[in-house]
Protein: Phosphoglycerate kinase
Amino acid sequence: MKTLNDFNFKDKKALIRVDFNVPLNDNFEVTDATRIISAKPTIIKILEDGGSCVLMSHLGRPKGVQDEFSLKHIIPKIEDILGVEVKFASNCVGEEAETKAAALKPGEILLLENLRFHEEETKGDEAFAQQLSNLGDIYVNDAFGTAHRAHASTTIVAQFFPNAKCFGYLLAKEIESIKKVLEDGQKPVLAVLGGAKVSSKITVIENILDKVDHLIIGGGMTFTFIKALGGTIGDSICEDDKMELALDILKQAEAKGVKVHLPVDVIAADSFSNDANTKVCDVRQIPEGWQGLDAGPESLQIFDKVVNESKTILWNGPLGVFEMESFAKGTIALGDSIAKSTKNGAFSLVGGGDSVAAVKQFGFEDKVSYVSTGGGAMLESLEGKTLPGIAAILD
Ligand SMILES: Nc1ncnc2c1ncn2[C@@H]1O[C@H](COP(=O)(O)OP(=O)(O)OP(=O)(O)O)[C@@H](O)[C@H]1O
Ligand SMILES: O=C(O)[C@H](O)COP(=O)(O)O
Structure:
């Protein structure tokens, strides 16, 4: 696996695919700069080698050219984080980009306008990828968050750099973290899967059953399992058409020697709202008119014990409706347990859009071993898929 350290960038132009698809507020200010901060080590290494950087990224899902999706909005944030002036090309291909890239001196950075202003990007157009390839000598992919897309800048462009392509530090670290959990994990290995629906996690569950010793199932997914097992779940979220599958997953887990831990109690609410009336219920006896929105205290104690005994922990998906304060306790308690276990030497990886949001919101970011920068990309990795952006570098 070629990484940055296999190259010296002196007097070279690196064409770097970053994932600067960051959230902006109404004033076009970056509200979470994690993805920019995470790309910094790669950019700095290249500049310190005496090279220059051409940065390319998408932002959002624009339909043609739309000013609100312009990457110019994030220039001040990038400059702030890198401490280097950032030049800008208002079109990612064409004369302006080529002239500005050609004029770059060692130590300088050029940011290209949003790649998705051209539909050729998402279509994986080869001619467009070739135009991009003209802007650099070495192609560096550091965009883990977009590595599951076979787009021009993430995948197709790599073919124009047969001997000059590599992973950036961030992408390499993401690959290493997933490997540390799914392949080389110190036992016992635990996966905690939460979130809303079984349907969005089926392939992940099936793939990780071969890799883990313990599986905690929480969040909205719980109720499809409980109902399938004969419990009464009141108005809790449930996918009736996935009940058979849930039973099959439990059977597969048993056959593979994986211990599955479902909640035994829940915080039930009489409506889906923060100020609903709540009570602790046996998970198998939730009354009509009530719905389980968080894990209950006994479940949290059981989960804490399992987490504490684990040496490798993967966490994907919150344990409850953490966006509402009344139902965030389970997710916070789980974060606490994982933080404690990490402090005691376990390796913990948090991935997935909402679990990462929860970890940041509740201040666990620095208390776990690694927080992934990818949502969909992480999920597809956990499903056991080879991501096209990664395969294109390995080719
Ligand atoms: N008991 C519950 N009832 C209803 N919704 C729930 C329940 N528990 C958790 N959720 C909801 O599940 C959502 C998160 O599910 P999701 O599967 O998207 O998580 P994720 O895996 O972290 O994110 P992603 O799918 O983006 O990777 C949250 O919005 C949360 O409110
Ligand atoms: O935020 C993400 O998950 C990545 O930047 C990919 O974005 P996309 O889902 O629009 O391809």
